[in-house]
Write a structure and sequence with these properties.
This protein is of the alpha/beta class. Among the domains are: 1-94, Conserved hypothetical protein from pyrococcus furiosus pfu- 392566-001, ParB domain, CATH 3.90.1530.10; 187-257. 44% of the residues lie in helices and 12% in strands. The strands form 2 sheets. It has a 5-stranded mixed beta sheet with strand order 1-5-3-4-2. A two-stranded antiparallel ribbon has the order 6-7. 23% of the residues are buried.
Length: 258
């Protein structure tokens, strides 16, 4: 990694590497004044050099402030990499410096990270930690992108340890022909609850049975988090069906004894 001044005209701003939703012209003016007066210490801008172009990944407001002051160049931290590398880097910036990110900035960064090749296999938690938002925020935007078919439903997640978890079997689905099964990652099995014919069943019994089966089928918290609404609904339907059978059997016995 090198650091030196680069002429503004050599730095590309058109690679969709702007991590914010837009440029704040008021902030640009404030930066320009501070630079001109020399009473502020600005960090270097960050660029990625692909052998031909310098792609700006961090420092858009600083670039515009320098340009406003008619200064020829800006001091930069130079990384080797492509425009895709610059984009991925940009999603993690502005968490601790510069103008505080608003919700639109965060939304843009999260959605871009989910659409980026490097984010395709990462969990909501991993992307959240990289972008600087909660995993629930990532989950919300992931669901939105999936609902509009901008990304497919992911059946794999990569955790902090680098291991890839196949989530396609959670809820009882079978593994695809080309999918590798994780031997030490238990998955949910089909729900079958046993009810004695003359058992007196109340609401607490239903809840206890449901909890017991969920604990058996989904033995790790991580897999429980990965469950979608469809899988949870499948378990609930199985519980309801089992208890309906018990109710029907009880009604038949009452008719016979009447």
């Amino acid at each position: 990694m090198k650091k030196r001044s680069i002429k503004l005209g050599k730095i590309r701003l058109d690679g969709d590497t702007q991590p914010r939703a837009g440029i704040n012209t008021t902030l640009v003016a404030e930066y320009a004044t501070a630079m001109e007066e020399g009473n502020a210490d600005f960090p270097p801008a960050v660029v990625f050099f692909d052998g031909t172009d310098y792609w700006l990944a961090d420092g858009f407001h600083r670039w515009h402030a320098v340009n406003k002051n008619d200064v020829a160049g800006i001091y930069c931290e130079i990384h080797d990499g492509t425009v895709e590398d610059a984009r991925w880097y940009s999603y993690s910036v502005n968490q601790a410096h510069g103008q505080r990110r608003n919700n639109a900035d965060k939304e843009k960064a999260v959605k871009a990270a989910l659409l980026h090749p490097k984010g395709a296999g990462l969990s909501d938690k991993e992307i959240g930690e990289y972008v600087g938002v909660s995993h629930s925020t990532v989950a919300k935007y992931r669901a939105e992108l999936e609902s509009t078919c901008q990304i497919g439903k992911s059946t794999a997640r990569q955790g902090r340890d680098g291991r890839t978890i196949d989530t396609s079997n959670i809820g009882g689905g079978g593994a695809g022909e080309n999918e590798e099964e994780e031997e030490d990652e238990p998955v949910a099995e089909e729900v079958h609850l046993h009810v004695e014919p003359d058992e007196d069943v109340g609401r607490d019994d239903v809840l206890a049975a449901f909890e017991q089966h969920v604990r058996k089928a989904i033995p790790t918290f991580r897999q429980l988090v990965l469950l979608g609404n469809g899988e949870i609904a499948s378990i609930l339907r199985a519980v309801a069906a089992e208890w309906q059978q018990r109710a029907d059997a009880s009604a038949e016995r009452q008719e016979v004894n009447a």
